[in-house]
Design goal:
- The chain is an alpha+beta fold.
- Helix 1 packs antiparallel against helix 2 (40-53).
- The chain folds into 2 domains: 2-153, Fructose-1,6-Bisphosphatase, Chain A, domain 1, CATH 3.30.540; 162-260, D-Maltodextrin-Binding Protein, domain 2.
- The protein has helices spanning 2-23, 40-53, 70-73, 88-93, 146-150, 174-185, 199-205, 220-232; strands at 29-31, 37-39, 60-62, 78-86, 99-106, 109-117, 122-127, 132-137, 152-153, 162-168, 189-195, 212-214, 237-239, 258-260.
- Strands 3-4-5-6-7-8-9 form a 7-stranded mixed beta sheet, sandwiched between helices.
Length: 261
């Protein structure tokens, strides 16, 4: 698993470097068939990540790859789940809140997660079975073995006198607002912060927020890496309507609504 983690980290950093090359230029935006935005950065990052992950024995599910039919996918015990540029809207807005997400899925569960924030060169990573997750800010877009030695262990928030809730910067919803109002009606003091991309998972994992409710559509590649990092520090990513965690490599790659807590 450590070998796979190293490959995923190298892939994420290399993709992040290429994303920043595009970020420095004029950003040209096209639309996918579902009207979501696409840039050359998404495509270039995807090509780089595929080149790394294709050296492993595991197939790849990526937002920017042609999707394999479920009849084939359901036979996979392990697979990579990739979002080469999570937060394309934030990338286009140039607010820095976009990430590279890479996770390894085993029998429907995330067992390894890597999130890289190209603008700040911040790396989050975890192997779930190690029950620890880590963060490091790099000096440049480059992997070194010292990275593991210099990383800081993440610790989730334990105090609950004031509930800090992190939500989407670009995809808020009435359901999320209603959820927050229901907590206020219970007498809870609420502090709300907005973040883009998978950074919301990181905010909870490193103790900057207590909860991340997501009552708007997401895909499996949006959540898998953050899910792994949160699980590694003892947090759950549970479906809104059921007391069970999100599952991956499903027939439909669309997630149900969920709460990170």
């Amino acid at each position: 698993m450590k070998e796979q983690l190293q490959i995923a980290i190298k892939a994420a950093i290399a993709a992040g470097a290429e994303i920043m090359n595009v970020y420095a230029e004029k950003i040209v935006v096209s639309l996918k068939t579902d009207c979501s935005p696409l840039t050359i950065a998404d495509e270039k990052a995807n090509t780089i990540i595929n080149s790394y992950l294709e050296t492993t024995p595991f197939p790849i599910i990526s937002e920017e790859n042609k999707q394999v039919p479920y009849a084939t996918r359901k036979q996979w015990e392990r697979c990579w789940m990739v979002d080469p540029l999570d937060g394309t809207k934030e990338f286009i807005k140039r607010n820095g809140e976009f990430t590279v997400n890479i996770a390894l899925i085993e029998l429907g569960k995330p067992v390894l997660g890597v999130i890289y924030v190209p603008v700040t060169k911040t790396l989050y990573y975890a192997i779930v079975s190690d029950t620890k997750a880590y963060k490091i800010k790099l000096s440049k877009h480059q992997f070194t073995n010292q990275l593991f030695q210099n990383s800081m262990e993440l610790k989730p928030k334990t105090t609950t006198s004031t509930l800090t809730i992190v939500g989407s910067r670009s995809h808020n919803s009435k359901e999320t607002s209603d959820f927050i109002q229901s907590l206020k009606a219970q007498g809870k003091e609420i502090n709300f912060i907005s973040k883009g991309s998978s950074l919301k998972f990181c905010e909870v994992a490193e103790g900057n927020a207590n909860l991340y409710p997501r009552f708007a559509p997401t895909m499996e590649w949006d959540t898998a890496a953050g899910h792994a990092i949160c699980n590694a520090v003892g947090l759950k990513v549970v479906q809104q309507q059921q007391a069970k965690e999100l599952q991956y490599n499903k027939k439909t790659l669309l997630n149900p609504y969920f709460i990170v807590q």
